[in-house]
Amino acid sequence: MKYPTALLTLPLLFAAPAMAADAQPRPDQLAFRDIYKELVETDTTLSAGSCTLAAERMAARLTAAGFADSQLTLFADPAHPKEGGLVAVYPGTSKTAKPILLIAHIDVVEAKRADWERDPFRMVEEDGYFYGRGTADDKAQAAVWVDTLIRFRKENYKPKRTVKVALTCGEETNGAFNGAEWLAANRRDLIDAEFALNEGGGGDSDGKGKVLGQSVQVGEKTFANFRLETRNPGGHSSAPVPDNAIYQLAAALTKIGQYEFPLEMTDTTRRFFAEAGAARGDETGRAMAALAKDPTDKAAEAIVNADRFLHSNLRTTCVATLLDGGHAPNALPQRAGANVNCRIFPGHPIEEIKAELERVIGDPGVTVTQLPPKRPAPPAPPLDPRVIGPMQTLVDKYWPGLKVIPAMANGYTDATFLGAVGIPTYGIPGMWGDPDGNGAHGLDERMEVRSVYVGRDYMFDLVKAYADKP
Asked: Do 427 and 216 contact (CB within 8 A), yes or no?
């Protein structure tokens, strides 16, 4: 999923819409819309849907466009037959240029019809928006990638680089089968690429048609859950003693709640704080720019820390999210437990954070156990001008006056698995969202029609810009 960035707070940036609000869709846009609609209307929830069916439908469209069977790989783990995916390959002419990989997840978060105004698995165009589960996260991007390959075939396009598309399942459900993880572990050759383009970047708007900024996601945190647990012989509640499993756990959680991981910066976050801070022109912006120059500036850090996103963007964070304990209302607790969710700054292995939690707690009677699945912790991809440069060139074309600002995600995407096997992965600019997050993971998910159509054109041009240069 796309995680929000502080670009929403940049009041001075504005680019004119690249497509008039009342413009009629072009024939090629309507053809794309049909792909988008089919994906949205294919239920790919873990509980009742099938990513495999969605992948098969996209493969059928590519076959109809002229792709050979050898260029399409449908894959599924036998233990997870409905969680399959697709890799499609459009060959380049160069024998030396490395491919580029376009990745998107096709699974979606659960959606209950009774809670929605509209059927979540029927794409509805209304009031300038496309509504439906997955319209924003992440089926618009998946549809663009499929549409891009079909357009290449129709144009008889001859890129220098091979262009690959991977549609995968499992990004939205921690612990479920994950297609990107499976490909990285089992078919690394199939997705081999110099770099990959993914979700996570994009534009922010004021919700009224003004695009305020465009970002590229360069790096993200690692996700990890830890189980904290205390045990005790217990006894009758009529004779309490200080040695209490719940009190012991509460003391440990209080220490974690009061602990602040140290401030850190990557090349990406330093540039983000400098450029986004300079664009803001307010007290927080000045403090951001000051921290980019001097990360030891405590006065600036105190100002920045008042913003919850910026605070988290500067450090590892760990927070209690679940709590349980005791076995009867008239008995001393024999066991108490809590889940602590950590979002780990790049460069730190999960084992290091576990050890730090144990140090902060300082009580051997509180066990700390890392819960599966264990995510890799790859380094952030480089701020490669060969990757960032074409993004900025095309932003100049589509949104004159805007600057592509690199940002690190506080959450994570499937870039985690690609980065771990040596494929630098970037969340690209293009489509923009509203300040409220467009209902992603929530009710009545939607994407602005102009955002989808203009973003599609931007993404198509961006892929060509990379594919044309070895």
From this structure: yes
